[in-house]
Amino acid sequence: MDERELVERLKKGDRVAQEYLVRVTQDFLFNSLLQVCHDRHIAEDIVIETYINAFRYIKGFKGESRIETWLYRIARNELKKYFDKMNRVDLRDDLKSEEKEAYFLEDDRKDMLYEAMGRLDVHEREIITLVDVEGLSYEEVRDLLAIPLGTVKSRLTRAREKLRSILKEFGYF
Amino acid sequence: MEEKIREKINEFVDGRIDREEVASLLEESVVLQYYEEIKSMKERLKELKVPSPDFNSKLESVYRRKRHIRYAFALALVVVILLIPLVRNAIIPHHIVMKSTQNETGTPRFMVPSVQGESTLKVEIEYEKLNDLLDELKRSYALKGEDEKSFTYTFEVESGKVTQFLNTIKEFKGAKIVESNIEGIQSPITTIKVIFIVK
């Protein structure tokens, strides 16, 4: 199913198309949000809310971006709304107070990496997640975050540099 | 190390530029170390990716829950709609009937409910007998108002004495009740307006 057909079917409320969209995007959405908020339950709730809103407002999707990009933007908004509501942290603030999840920390180095990621601010963590965890290109990140390509490069460089410094403190290298 | 050099190394790590472009930079040990650390970090970061849960089934359970809430709400609405006439027919008339059963005999009877307050009685009477009947009524019942021009008199009658009040008029020679909205009503009416039609 190509994206145009998928969108048309989604606009008609086709359940099969909805299930297909969920299947092909859930990994990306869930992981991106999980790395940003560092809380599995919050990430799950936000992903569910994202899909519900996406299906509700799909008629307003004009196809100016990829549907995955559109979904990610909805998810980002939902996450921001969640944090605003919980009054826990602004998306520009550090999320290092978030609890560490134990489900994938099967070795020390990965544990360190996870800890170090938690010390980055949310934008640094987001860009590293998109490029290094999700493997997106700079251009895809530019479209997702709606920032210039130069900003993608400089933000990524700074974020990686900060992560590297933290990992050095931990004795990672 | 300069920011520009870092950016170049990062682009090289991400496969955006060729080795030749950074070859000279990598000859410096600091830059080489930076490159190797960034590269090893990037490789491990991929491992932070975790399998996501099945959101199709999670969404299905959310929809199911929402459906249940909608059904429960609709059901509650139907019950309320059905209950409204029942409540109106059962509770409100019951309340009125309860009052209307307080007649003189104490025997409960279903009556047509009337509006609480003033009732009207039209009595045909010969002019010369009007004062006699009024005197008789005034002896037993309190006269609360009168309009001599229209021959209208308002009496306050104790709730248990309505029949007696009516009988007084009925049994008075020369008087005839021609219209009444209290006939047969034994409710606790306390004010009766008597309009005399004088012959």
What does this structure look like?
- The complex is a heterodimer of chains A (173) and B (199).
- Chain A is mainly alpha-helical and 173 residues long.
- Chain A has a single domain, classed as RNA polymerase sigma factor, region 2, helix turn helix motif (Rna Polymerase Sigma Factor, Chain: A, Orthogonal Bundle).
- Helices cover 71% and strands 0% of the residues of chain A.
- Chain A has helices at residues 3-11, 15-37, 40-57, 67-86, 108-118, 122-133, 138-145, 149-169.
- Chain B has 199 residues and is α+β, with helices and mostly antiparallel strands.
- Chain B folds into 3 domains: 3-48, no CATH class; 52-100; 118-198, no CATH class.
- Chain B contains 6 helices and 5 strands.
- In chain B, 51% of the residues lie in helices and 17% in strands.
Alpha-carbon distance between the two ends of chain A: 45 Å
Radius of gyration of chain A: 17 Å
Secondary-structure element series of chain A: HHHHHHHH
Rg of chain B from C-alpha positions? 48 Å
The SSE string of chain B, one letter per element, is HHHHEHEEHEE
Q: Can you tell me the overall shape of chain A?
A: elongated
Low-confidence regions of chain B: 99-115
Strand percentage of chain B, roughly?
15-25%
Summing up helix and strand content along with how strands pair, one would put the structural category of chain B as: alpha+beta
Count of domain modules of chain B: 3
Question: What is the typical, i.e. mean, pLDDT of chain B?
Answer: 83
The largest β sheet of chain B comes out as: 5 strands, mixed
Number of strands of chain A: 0
What topology emerges from the helices and strands here?
The complex is a heterodimer of chains A (173) and B (199).
Chain A: H1 3-11, H2 15-37, H3 40-57, H4 67-86, H5 108-118, H6 122-133, H7 138-145, H8 149-169
Chain B: H1 3-13, H2 19-23, H3 29-45, H4 55-100, E1 118-125, H5 127-140, E2 142-147, E3 152-156, H6 162-170, E4 175-180, E5 191-198
Parallel strand pairs in B: 1-5
Antiparallel strand pairs in B: 1-4, 2-3, 3-5
